[in-house]
Amino acid sequence: MLKLKKTVVAGTLESSDIQVTMGPNPGKGIDITLDSVVKIQFGDSILATVHHLLEEFKISEAQVILNDKGAIDAVIRARTQTAICRASGISYDWSKEDTHGT
After folding, report:
1. What's the pLDDT at 91?
2. Parent domain of 22
């Protein structure tokens, strides 16, 4: 189980990006807040992506604030992965995200 050690920010508030603020949430499980310009259309999908990544990294306690400005799924994944790595102090093998084999 991966523990988050500090609160961090990944991403920006620019159009087509998402700002992910993530930090520890000891004893309180996963708490995700989503503010999005496309929440009605894509809110469930955004939340599913973030939940999936938290599960993938075996994180069971986190406070996550998502401020989405219309980011596509790949950006949401990258920003969330970056926040997880920064908050937990681990490195990530980005080459496994390379679907083109380069």
Report:
1. 87
2. 8-89
